[in-house]
Amino acid sequence: MERAPELGRSRNTAGAQRAASFDRAPAVRVFVVGEVRVYCEGIAHLLAAQPSVQVVGIAAPTRDSMQQIASVGPDVVLIDSVTARRGNTARLISSTSKSQVIAFAVREEEAEVLACAEAGVAGYVACDASSDELAAIMCRAGSGEVACSPRLAAILFRRVGALAREQGGAQLPPLTPREREILELIDSGLMNKEIATALSIEIATVKNHVHHILEKLGVARRAAAAAKARKLGR
């Protein structure tokens, strides 16, 4: 009869130790980006009340703020859905920092979700998410997980399946080894003269190959040829 309290205290002690260990976990560092300052400040205020989150900055989506993000190095950059759909900001953040980009206030509609996905967003916070849910998503994103609601996940999986079917039915037209080599150089941003120098061939020869590449791929421009080759898996 006397051992039961000891067992109870042991369990309580173990629980306290686990809680203390959780409390010692480093807070996820979050930078908030959006068009409307007051809106972003409200989000930041909600997040700051969560012990698992540390807000390290608020800014509008400008080049200066992108440099600030790169300098601060947050775990997560939280951007509003309007900024996310434009694409440039998310891509710039991804290319200049190691931060996870999460879009907030996202409507669970296919067009909006796919626009964010194509911009490189790694996770989504729906319009009706609570502050606790928002903080939980920040923590998951800070650990490298992609976070979104089951409905948003279903939309993304449907799109991935559709793309797989499209790519499975489309193949890159046959190109000669030299045409493939030139197409790769075009995709790298080289102009005809630079390609000729790189391959030690005449510029007229390059132009002839480029003409054949455009014909085979059914496009009118070099950039479109490179994009199509990437899509079909060059």
Q: How would you sum up this structure, described in words?
A:
With 234 residues, the protein is of the alpha/beta class. It has 2 domains: 25-153, Rossmann fold (3-Layer(aba) Sandwich); 177-232, Arc Repressor Mutant, subunit A. 62% of the residues lie in helices and 12% in strands. It has helices at 3-24, 37-48, 63-72, 81-86, 88-96, 110-118, 131-142, 150-169, 177-187, 192-199, 203-217, 222-232, and strands at residues 28-33, 53-59, 76-80, 100-106, 123-126. It is elongated and about 65 Å long. 29% of the residues are buried.
Summary, kept brief:
This protein has 234 residues and is an alpha/beta fold. It has twelve helices and five strands.
Approximate strand percentage: 5-15%
Any idea how many domains?
Answer: 2
Give me the side-by-side strand order of the main sheet: 2-1-3-4-5
Report the order of strands and helices: HEHEHEHHEHEHHHHHH
| Shape label | elongated
CATH class of the largest domain: Alpha Beta
